[in-house]
């Protein structure tokens, strides 16, 4: 079996920081934090949280899942990401998305929501130049650089890898042409296989090596004593999280049930091409207990 890695997306509102130490001790590969400027529930700034995680860990990859790239000037993202990369000794993965499901945050940040894709594409190009070059001059549609040099540079040569998130064809194109990873969410295994195939094709068309792109998945998981118990917890969590009903779609999109149920479903995603899971525990048990169950009863099946 191909090497499969497992990370955990921490609760939006910011958990007890000792949980990230527990995560590392349990053998996970990465820790991720989400963010919105404004949303249906509380969220924190991703870079600030990851800086705190950097101080409490030594091995875990630290990732944003995701930074809404259009909402910040590209130069600001370059500085924030570089700072976390340095503080962590080169462990940052910059997950980026375009958002749009909560238009009020775009209004608040003065960004037209219809420009979000174009802004993200331009920002990725600027990030890579600022991380790799000195005396950068750039004239784009949204941003302008006049011979500026980002100092200091990231620890990782060329900067942190940029993993592109999203469910749309535009996200697949962005990942293939510009990204170092591809991270959809709320996908079935079949849809992941199709999307990953398109990402690879876009990469080839751009003259890039598709094998250099990491196929990842932001995956909700509800470990429980039974499939029915896991499903009930998943429906309640996601309906609240996204402010819409989820009763009819959790079977397709959520890994849930007993450890064996979860393993069988995760195996289908691995067969479809996933190599790094960003797990979002939404089962009925307390969060820390779910971390233990996943690490003890599910992850070893893929090692």
The CATH homology group name: Luciferase-like domain
**Count of DSSP strands:** 12
Helix content: 40-55%
Strand order, sheet with most strands:
1-2-3-5-8-9-10-12
Number of distinct helices: 11
End-to-end Cα distance: 8 Å
Structure notes:
The longest helix is centred in the middle third of the chain and has 17 residues, at 116-132. This protein has a single domain, classed as Luciferase-like domain (TIM Barrel, Alpha-Beta Barrel), CATH 3.20.20. Strands 1-2-3-5-8-9-10-12 form an eight-stranded parallel beta barrel, surrounded by seven helices. Strands 6-7 form a two-stranded antiparallel ribbon. It has helices at 18-25, 46-56, 74-87, 103-109, 116-132, 169-178, 189-205, 227-242, 250-253, 259-272, 287-298; strands spanning 5-9, 30-33, 61-64, 67-68, 92-97, 136-139, 144-148, 162-165, 181-183, 214-223, 255-257, 276-281. 43% of the residues lie in helices and 18% in strands. It starts with a strand and ends in a 5-residue tail after the last helix. It has 303 residues and is an alpha/beta fold. It is globular. It is built from eleven helices and twelve strands. The mean pLDDT is 96.
What's a quick, concise take on this entry?
The protein has 303 residues and is α/β, with parallel strands linked by helices. It contains eleven helices and twelve strands.
């Amino acid at each position: 079996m191909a090497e499969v890695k497992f990370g955990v997306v921490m609760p939006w509102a910011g958990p007890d920081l000792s949980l990230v130490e527990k995560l590392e001790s349990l053998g996970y590969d990465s820790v991720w934090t989400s963010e919105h400027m404004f949303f249906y529930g509380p969220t924190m700034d991703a870079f600030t949280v990851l800086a705190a995680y950097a101080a409490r860990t030594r091995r875990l990859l630290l990732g944003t899942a995701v930074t809404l790239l259009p909402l910040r000037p590209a130069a600001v993202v370059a500085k924030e990401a570089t700072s976390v990369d340095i503080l962590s000794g080169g462990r940052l993965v910059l997950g980026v998305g375009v958002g749009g499901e909560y238009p009020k945050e775009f209004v608040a940040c003065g960004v037209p929501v219809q420009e979000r894709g174009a802004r993200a594409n331009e920002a990725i190009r600027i990030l890579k130049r600022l991380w790799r070059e000195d005396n950068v001059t750039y004239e784009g549609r949204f941003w302008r650089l006049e011979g500026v040099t980002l100092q200091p540079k990231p620890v990782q040569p060329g900067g942190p890898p940029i993993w592109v998130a999203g469910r749309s064809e535009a996200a697949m194109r962005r990942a293939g042409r510009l990204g170092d990873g591809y991270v959809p969410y709320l996908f079935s295994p079949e849809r992941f296989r199709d999307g990953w195939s398109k990402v690879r094709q876009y990469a080839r068309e751009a003259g890039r090596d598709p094998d250099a792109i990491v196929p990842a998945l932001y995956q909700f998981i509800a470990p429980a004593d039974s499939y029915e118990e896991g499903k009930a917890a998943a429906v309640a969590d996601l309906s609240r999280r996204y402010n819409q009903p989820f009763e009819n779609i959790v079977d397709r999109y959520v890994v849930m049930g007993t450890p064996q149920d979860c393993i069988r479903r995760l195996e289908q995603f691995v067969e479809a091409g996933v190599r790094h899971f960003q797990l979002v525990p939404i089962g009925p048990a307390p969060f820390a207990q779910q971390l233990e169950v996943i690490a003890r009863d599910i992850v070893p099946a893929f090692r």
